[in-house]
Amino acid sequence: MQIEASRKLGFSANQTMRTAQKLYEGIEINGEPTGLITYMRTDSVLMSKDAIEEIRGFVSEKLGNEYIPTEPRIYKSKAKNAQEAHECIRPTNIRLSPEELKKYLNSDEYKLYEIIWQRAVSSQMASAIIDQVSVDITNEQDIIVFRSNGSSIKFPGMLAVYQETKEEDKKEDEYDKSSLLPPLDQGDPLNLIKAETHQHFTLPPPRYTEASLVKKLEELGIGRPSTYASIIKVLQDRDYVLLDKKRFNPHDRGRVVSVFLENYFNKYVEYDFTAGLENQLDEISNGKLYWKEVIQKFWETFKQLCDETIGKSNREIIDVLDNALGPHFFPPNGEDKDRECPNCKNGRIGLKVGKFGGFVGCSNYPECKYTVQFNQITDAKNGTLTNPKEIGIYPETGEMITIRKGPYGLYMQVGEGTDEKKPKRVSIPKNFEPDEIGLNTAIQLLALPRKLGFHPENNLTVSAGIGMYGPYILHNKKYKSLEKTDNILDIDLERAIELIAKPTIRGNATLKNFGEHPQEKKEITAHDGKYGTYVKCGRINASLLGDQTVGTLSLEDAIKLINDRKVKLGQKVSKKKKDKVKTVNSSKK
């Protein structure tokens, strides 16, 4: 589920498990809470006999008997340490199709339920019959011959419901993949529409995506479906990796930790050790091993190794790390200046340790205060920058302009600064390529903000600069962000006035006011948010369901969304107060 949701929907493992939890907890259908899927923290592929029969009956009814195999399909797990105490992840009621539930689910819930439902149904369907086809295409003289290998579907079978995503990491070149071909007969004439040439290069194996990493962990027997999401989250939270374009790139901090463990705790980072420990935990839960014996055996060797490592000097450990990581942090440049300090020019830069962790610094410290934190020595494009990139001398101070990477992205800095005075800095806009920035461009960016002129309506100054949120226009104490196509160095007064005149649309702008909630006594409004349109009443936000739109939503619909959301959050729904009737006794005493 996590792998397919990542490939098809682009969901992270954490997002998939959160959404699956909501489907497992269920929704209210016809006044009754209904769980939509079975327990989702399992890697079991077993399905109950009742569920199998229900699916076979459903397929036969909807598609015909030819779409069900003669015998039910029984699957076995390929995972080394599969836990099959639970059923596989499947819908609790196969007749609750995704389309029927769409109006009750938000976008993420609907998409994930659709995958679970389709995979469950297709798992009990007949196999597709696909003919492998090889077509030779020649010119009239039979001199030129092109061959196309592909396939054609003879009987769709399970493909009528679901087609699993192909392993994205096997081949990167689309021209090497077989494809479906249309029906062809020998001798059919073909018209040449266009001829293209393509050059092929051998590429290194691609980096892991969330889907391929989860699959690899599963193959190695490391972790469980319930822990894959937390494993990936820890890697990102601790800054060991960077997720860029859906692929994991190792960060410098992650490299250092990895090299340290490989050199001093090698046994505990081997795949077999982790998988073996998982098996021992399974045997403990099955009563085959006594937990104290397992812990005691582990602790004795682990503590001994910890004591040995603690006994080593910091200098010894740093030297080991420096030698191992040198080719990454300081790749050879062919000039025998791989480790030359860019600041003092005669010091040697290397790995060092301070009270806030590791960093790269100069051997002439404290005379030279050149330092770069881990994860700030990363090149803007491929993650292998040796030092801050030097651009040239800043004419006002005579100091070097460098490009660096900080926690909020790339920036330029003049000199190194001192404890008393911070160096001059400016962020690099996203539409600037760092390796194309020359000295002239750098000086112009460092000179920002710049005055563009005066606004014709009020004669107030209009200026352009770069701030915390990127390039901006400033007028009458109000900021306006530049659009992606605008260049902060080229923008003129005319374009700035045009941007100022455009209305600012904020993410929380009110799209519609439905009126007051009768019980809450607060207005219900509609807004556009990160995950789609929602209604808001006080602190309660509720997403629109299925095909609901702001235009068709009534006050009653909005009240129901708010009330349902409060129930889901475990809050009480205020009931409409009844008018109190005062009874007067008319009898006279």
UniProtKB/TrEMBL annotation:
What UniProt keywords are attached to this protein's entry? DNA-binding, Isomerase, Metal-binding, Topoisomerase
Swiss-Prot/TrEMBL GO biological process terms: DNA topological change
- An annotated Gene Ontology molecular function: DNA binding
- What are the GO cellular component annotations? chromosome
User: What residue stretches are annotated with the Topo IA-type catalytic domain?
Assistant: 1-306
An example Pfam family from this entry, by short name, is Zn_ribbon_Top1
**Listed name of the protein:** Topo IA-type catalytic domain-containing protein
The species this protein was found in: marine metagenome
What is the taxonomic lineage of the source species?
A: unclassified sequences, metagenomes, ecological metagenomes
